[in-house]
TrEMBL record:
GO annotation terms (biological process): small molecule metabolic process
Species per Swiss-Prot/TrEMBL record: Nitratireductor pacificus pht-3B
Record-stated family: Belongs to the DapA family.
Origin superkingdom: Bacteria
Protein name listed in UniProt: Dihydrodipicolinate synthetase
The keyword Lyase is annotated on this UniProt entry: yes
Length: 307
């Protein structure tokens, strides 16, 4: 089985589209180069912010193959296996395995709410059938919550290599961390919230897998490096310098502002599948202008700190 080190900074990749709504593979190449050059520890294509639910299986396959081939030997790749049933999740796992990816990210099945026994069986089917390391994914805003109790059971399986927690709750995060310690295994725990890289590291977590990492990877990598070097005050100051940018990006329907922010970094992203309604253009433009100002300020603060 492939090896996975689920720690550090993992990019939640925004999917670029061309004018015809197809995945823009040339821009995929440019993005992968950008992230690898920034020193990220992994790339997460086919995630929520990457609009995975709007991609058919052939589009996911093209995207996963391109990211994996471009990133080979430079960073890890963990595609999302977001699906309504284990059959479809395992189809994505097969693509990831054939592409040489390091693992997959598996949230609870979408749409339906399941009793614990059914949810447990879903995860066991995916864990045992994927043939890759598994990062479980708690994202209660979009899927049934993964409880610390169920995670603790699933984490006993040797294929489970990590958990991405996007709850935003440090209470939940600590309970997940406690369950990991009880296993005695080396399992990574990453926050999915942009605001919490520093805080998660401070309590013993392993890093960040979030959409802000796709916008300012060099800043998130710098926070990682400062923390590891014991420069805690500097790391926290840099984390806090991102708050205005994060607020501005979430002021627009996700993932539109994140896509626009990546475009502001010089990449051809195209339109989101569900783009801004005509009635919202003026208001959205004003919010995006605020996001640009916040992005410029964050990059300037990073440059000054690094000087």
């Amino acid at each position: 089985m492939k090896k996975l080190d689920f720690s550090g900074v993992f990019v939640v990749m925004l999917t670029p589209f061309d004018g015809g709504g197809r995945v823009d593979l040339d821009t995929v190449d440019a993005l992968v180069d950008f992230y690898c050059d920034a020193g990220v520890d992994g790339i997460f294509p086919c995630g929520s912010a990457g609009e995975a639910l709007h991609l058919d299986l052939s589009q996911k396959e093209a995207l996963i193959n391109r990211v994996a081939s471009r990133a080979a030997g430079r960073t890890q790749v963990l595609p999302g296996a977001i699906a309504a049933n284990s059959r479809d999740a395992l189809a994505i796992a097969r693509i990831a395995r054939d592409a040489g990816c390091n693992g997959i990210v598996a949230p609870p099945p979408i749409y339906y709410r399941f009793e614990p026994a059914y949810l447990r069986q879903y995860f066991r089917d995916v864990i045992e059938g994927a043939g890759l390391p598994i990062v479980l994914y708690n994202i209660p805003a979009y899927a049934q919550p993964l409880t610390p109790e169920l995670f603790g059971e699933l984490a006993q399986h040797p294929a489970v290599a990590g958990l991405k927690d996007s709850s935003g709750s440090m209470v939940d995060y600590l309970h997940f961390l406690d369950r990991i310690r009880a296993t005695g295994r080396r399992i990574g725990l990453m926050t999915g919230r942009e605001e919490l890289l520093y805080a998660s590291l401070a309590v013993g977590g392993s890093g960040s897998m979030s959409a802000i990492n796709a916008v300012v990877p060099e800043i998130m990598v710098r926070i990682r490096d400062l923390y590891r070097a014991g420069k805690l005050a500097e790391a926290n100051t840099l984390q806090m310098s991102l708050m205005e940018l994060i607020q501005a990006l979430y002021a627009v329907q996700v993932p539109i502002a994140f896509r626009e922010a990546v475009a502001m970094r010089g990449f051809r992203m195209g339109r989101a599948v569900h783009d801004v309604p005509a009635s919202e253009h003026a208001a959205t433009d004003a919010k995006l202008a605020r996001a640009r100002e916040a992005l410029d300020a964050a990059l300037a603060a990073h440059k000054d700190a690094a000087a």
